[in-house]
Amino acid sequence: MPSDKKLILASSSRFRLQQLQQLRIPFDAVKPNFEETPLPAETAPQTALRLASGKAQSLACLYPDALIIGCDQVAWCREQQLGKPLTVAKAQQMLHYLSGQEVRFYSALTVLNTAENRLHQHIDETRVVMRTLTDAQINCYLTLEPDAVHCAGAAKSEGLGALLIECIESSDPNALIGLPVFRLVDFLLAEGINIL
């Protein structure tokens, strides 16, 4: 595959855009047209992987000869799946629920080669222990980090959300932000994209 294959990030997240920019390879970021709703009886990893794949597939017809990167993240805590709260009220509820708890963040990655209809997929699990949070801390955090409503579990770890966390266990520290960069590099190399 030629090294000038067009690379598309199927995301409007500025955090994932910044993560991909760190690899210093040219790409375009395009908002995917895909409904991010979990299905009944789906596990958190299944939801994350389906959404990541769906985002990439939603752009395939627009880019018939490209590599499309799709990603999504779902949080899991106390037998409940948590996505993006989208409102401050729901974010407050989620953070109360997560306070002092162990949370699993499932970060899914898909790389779709549209010309060959080849799909690479990966799920990265990050174990996080949250600090015990007061109402005042939650309200202050959401005031200072309004973008947290667009993060799984309202935990925006790349900002002040790091203060909510007691410890992290992960094979890829990038995954908690939303893009498992280590595995992405493997997939891009497999598709002929030489980064170094």
Automatic annotation (TrEMBL):
One of its GO terms (molecular function) is nucleoside triphosphate diphosphatase activity. The active site is at 72 (proton acceptor). It comes from the Bacteria. It catalyses: N(7)-methyl-GTP + H2O = N(7)-methyl-GMP + diphosphate + H(+). Keywords: Cytoplasm, Hydrolase, Nucleotide metabolism. One of its GO terms (cellular component) is cytoplasm. GO terms for biological process: nucleotide metabolic process. It is an enzyme of class 3 (hydrolase). SUPFAM superfamilies: ITPase-like. Pfam families: Maf (PF02545). Its EC number is 3.6.1.-. InterPro entries: ITPase-like_fam, Maf-like. Gene3D superfamilies: 3.90.950.10. It is found in: Cytoplasm. Its main location: cytoplasm. Its cofactor is a divalent metal cation. The record marks 15, 73, 158 as: Important for substrate specificity. Belongs to the Maf family. YceF subfamily. Nucleoside triphosphate pyrophosphatase that hydrolyzes 7-methyl-GTP (m(7)GTP). May have a dual role in cell division arrest and in preventing the incorporation of modified nucleotides into cellular nucleic acids. This is 7-methyl-GTP pyrophosphatase. The lineage of its organism: Bacteria, Pseudomonadati, Pseudomonadota, Betaproteobacteria, Neisseriales.
